[in-house]
Design goal:
By secondary structure, the chain is mainly alpha-helical. It is about 70% helix and about 0% strand. It has one domain.
Length: about 325
């Protein structure tokens, strides 16, 4: 069996594994969420679904921004096809599967696999950092404390901001590629693209948290007070960040939901908090499947799923910058 046949077989096995994992997640979530769906008004449920739908689109735009900066600009349609289908890989234990799937599809658009892989891993890291920053106000609640010292919050925010500083990001990319014995990228990631990506990711966290707020206020019958808003938006970001680092649990399944329920339970009954977490999980899976289906349909129409990879287009060497190499 040749190398191409082995790769084709591995792609089929990975696709079957992803589909199986998604189906299991859907069935499990439906059994949990069905008793609570009747308690949600149609209007708030539709609004929560719309907000949940906006979040992955914003994340895709951040991912696309970094890919374009590194020399592979894609229009929104092909970028969505690659990103959304690849995202189903997160339902298989281990975050790397989503990156592998995106790299495989991106190669059919002439984008080097290494470049897609680096952008995918960097997107995970930046999403984790932004989620951690937004989730900081909810951390004292999770730790069972009434408040966290202001100096500690400032210190954590400063450290996260420094970690996102473009020269450090580029140094991390170079070191990582050396560790896996891969060639360096053609040029560093620009500061403007890093900042724009952070804006898109931050927006995605806020709209996701807003979906939690809509569901929570409807199920628990609470007014959207400052405390409730804080627990929903910041609590979701923190719980999702915990889910992202739980690589053995597909898409943070169970970890994200449990942490979110614990945080929300400080503002509503535990049963209502658990119901909110389950409904949000079901909405997230439904949106992931919906956008992936759209991406899959686009990919099938444009032969991204079964054609041979397109040789990458050489990227001309950039002119030496006047200042440091990380500038916009």
């Amino acid at each position: 069996m040749g190398r191409r046949s082995i790769l084709a077989l591995l792609r089929l096995l990975l696709m079957a594994l992803v589909v199986t994992a998604v189906v299991v997640a859907l069935v499990t979530s439906w059994e949990d969420v069905s008793p609570y769906l009747g308690a949600i008004s149609p209007g708030p449920l539709a609004l929560a679904f719309l907000l949940t739908l906006i979040a992955p689109y914003a994340t895709m735009l951040g991912w696309r921004t970094m890919l374009a900066d590194l020399g592979s600009p894609l229009r929104q349609a092909p970028a969505a096809g690659v990103f959304f289908v690849g995202q189903l890989g997160k339902y298989v234990p281990g975050s790397i599967w989503a990156v592998i799937a995106q790299a495989e599809m991106g190669s059919r658009l002439g984008v080097p696999r290494r470049r897609v892989g680096v952008v995918g891993l960097l997107a995970i890291a930046l999403a984790l950092l932004t989620g951690g920053v937004i989730g900081l106000p909810a951390l004292p609640v999770l730790l069972g404390r009434t408040e966290l010292g202001g100096s500690a919050v400032v210190l954590v925010v400063v450290l996260l901001a420094v970690a996102c500083y473009p020269p450090f990001v580029n140094a991390g990319i170079r070191r990582g590629l050396r560790l896996v014995r891969r060639q360096p990228l053609e040029h560093d990631l620009g500061g403007r693209s890093v900042l724009l990506t952070l804006v898109w990711f931050t927006f995605a966290w806020f709209v996701s948290g807003s979906a939690v707020l809509v569901v929570a206020t409807d199920i628990a019958g609470l007014a959207p007070t400052r405390q409730v808003v804080l627990m929903c938006i910041c609590g979701f970001a923190l719980s999702a960040a915990f889910g992202m680092i739980s690589v053995l649990f597909p898409a943070g399944f169970g970890i994200r939901d449990g942490v979110l329920a614990l945080i929300l339970a400080t503002s509503m009954p535990l049963a209502a908090a658990a119901a909110v977490a389950v409904v949000i999980r079901f909405l997230t899976i439904g949106v992931d499947v919906l956008v992936a289906a759209g991406g899959w349909a686009w990919g099938r129409r444009h032969d991204l799923l079964d054609s041979a990879p397109v040789p990458p287009t050489p990227t001309p060497a950039p002119s030496p910058p006047a200042g440091n190499g990380a500038g916009p």
